[in-house]
Amino acid sequence: MGKKTEEIRVLPGMSTEERQTELLRLSELIVDEPGLSAAANRSVKVLISSHMIRLIRRIIASGDKKGAQALLRTVIPSALEFGQRLAGWKVDGMGTGHRKGEFDLPNCYQPHNIRRLYPDRIILIPSFKCPVLCRYCFRRAEAGNERPINMQPSLDYIRSWNGSQDAKIRDVILSGGDPLSLSDEDLGNLLAKLRAIPGVQIIRIDTKYPVVRPERITEGLLSVLAGRVNIMTLHFTHPLEICDEVVDVCRRLSCHGMTLRSYTPLLKGVNDDRKILKELFWTLLSRCGISPYYAVQFIETPGAQHFRIPLAQTLDLMRGLHEELSGQAIPNLVIYLNDGGGKYVVSPHEKILMPGESGTGIRKVEAGYKIPSPLNPGRYSFYPD
After folding, report:
1. Contact present, 130 and 181 (Cβ < 8 Å)
2. What is the pLDDT of residues 218-239, one digit of tens each?
3. Are 257 and 139 in a shared domain?
4. CA atoms within 13 Å, Cβ hemisphere of 251
5. Confidence bin at 68 (pLDDT 50/70/90)
6. Boundary (domain end) residue, out of 34, 50, 83
7. 3-class secondary structure, 278
8. What CATH number corresponds to the domain at position 257?
9. DSSP string of 156-169?
10. Which of 57, 217, 236, 338 could bridge across to 249 with cysteines, CB 3.0–4.6 Å?
11. Together in a domain, 197 and 283
12. Can you spell out the DSSP letters for 222-258?
């Protein structure tokens, strides 16, 4: 593979010459100067896959500069990241840390790579390694760490829980990083061990690999996944990600017995447009055979606030989709409450209650909203605007 198509990696510890070489390759794409300046910061990691580079070059050649910029914003550091105040912003935007003590066992504490909000399901992180480094990622403080994780404590924890609790862990969600960063052999061994634990009925994988590194989906990997993984959730942000290579990979995945669905973070400057979202969700369903599952309102993330879309604007976007798309192509809009309150699923025609109005649901307050907690009846969580 020629230099023009190799991935771009800018990592701490590189020599000045190495960084400058990679930054020069970034400049060959259409990146604004503030973004390059941010990438030059020695503490910033940048990782763009070779597939993304080829795709963006094709988009540029087609004359769609705006579309290319939208994709680049998801992976290129912005100077805006370093001008944001981090006070009051939590790294744990999903709020799992607030409930960790609830799920400890005597002499068997919850491992650091297991996240829980619910008794019957867990998020299990087998790797923090990623195919690309997304600037909006709510796990960005950990993402890209390539050190291997010892999975034995996690497997022991699941066995202990299922052997001693009435509410079994039935549903295991492999997330990350990205689980497909594991080798075929290591992933196969992990899946086999999870399948052997009594009580585990569903295994899901959350991944970005089919979208940004479709070459990872080999026949060898498909044979590892077949019969072991029930559901695969693919992360899409923009319809331009859906090229012929990605469509082919999705069809091959669906032929191996997995239910495919999508997860889409809503991002300012990337997909905050009704036409873009309409094209994305319809193309996922019609070309890829993927059911749009979640559209996710901004998860609190230090350094990523410039991606936040105001909630009122998001509701307008979703109402428009309900007017123009088949229900099969419309995902659920969800808000993660960062105090451990769980996921709030926003109804298609949710009305925001203004001060003084009676009723249940989302309430407008100063500087944000109060949202009822699905996990704590009668309790409201604050969500900033």
Report:
1. yes
2. 999 999 999 999 999 999 999 9
3. yes
4. 10
5. very high
6. 83
7. helix
8. 3.20.20.70
9. HHHHHHHHH-SS--
10. 217
11. yes
12. HHHHTTT-SEEEEE---GGG--HHHHHHHHHHHTTT-
